[in-house]
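Reply to dn_fold:

You asked what the input looked like. This is it:
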Amino acid sequence: MTYQASKLTAAQSVEIVDAELPSQVPEGYVRLKLATASLCGTDLHYFKNFSNAGFQLQNALSLGHEACATVIDANGADLAAGQLVALNPIIFCGECENCGKGLVNLCTSKKFPGSATTVPHIDGFFREYFDFPAFCCHTVPEGTDPDHLTFAEPLACSMHSVNVGEVGPGTKVCITGCGPMGLLAVVAAASKGAQVEVTDVREAVVELACEVGASKGYVTGKDDLAALDSAYDVVIEASGSPHAFNQALELVKRQGKLVILSNIQPSETPVNLHKIMLKEVSVMGSFQFNKEFREAVELVTSRKVDFDKLIAARFPLGQTADALQYMADGKAFGKILLKPEQ
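and this is what came back:
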């Protein structure tokens, strides 16, 4: 079966190719047709550099790990042809010590599509058809909007950061950075009953954060943040900027929690590590998700959140390069979606 696939062949080089599906669906897998995919900052790093966080791609690859799809062939799984499913991209072993603890994000034999971390690489979801493990396919209520369901994976990442920070009703939270992950962290923290405020250098995204759950926002470089020193129980760093990390160290209260949701890239900017000691701050990483994927699917399908506000643009699959460049240009306030050709 021939289908259309987007392939990253080199840094800033994406080709649309005709690919072939195997004649047989592997045991334990289902055959799927892409419904909607969305772009992640990780995809952007691969697009710019052919690498991410020190992991170099060894060959051309279909990117994409945020998606939902329609079942074409259930292959014996408890799914129905035509059914929409959310896709959990973490292919965990279920046998290692971490999996036994429910920490599938830290599985020692984990495989992950569209990433150089898995060798040989596994093609991601920026393609029209693909086979994927049945246990990674989560059913959803009929009538779920696929454009909203593609938010399940990034929302799960943001929900994990909120859970790592033990955010609950009344927790005073600040999120530094209102990119897609920061905006979803607002949604996640607000869903827990927290009091959420945000900072960003862009006024437009601060306003958008307030539309989806933040009670107040501050524009870095414009608003005076001095009065916010040590004001927050939990700060979630979602920008990836060392400057924002330093800001987070100022904002978090003494013995508060600072959760790193972003993938902070190497930089010559000095980080004020002494603040961690002086304020006895607990600094925690937040990597992917565990039980939060199901939480995220439930929040999406509850229709309590207007995810349309978080969609910046839609591109056909054949224009994946344009979509990535649009993201690289910083024009997107929210998520960029990819849709298969009709």
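The chain has two domains: 2-150+306-339, 164-285.
Hope that clears it up.
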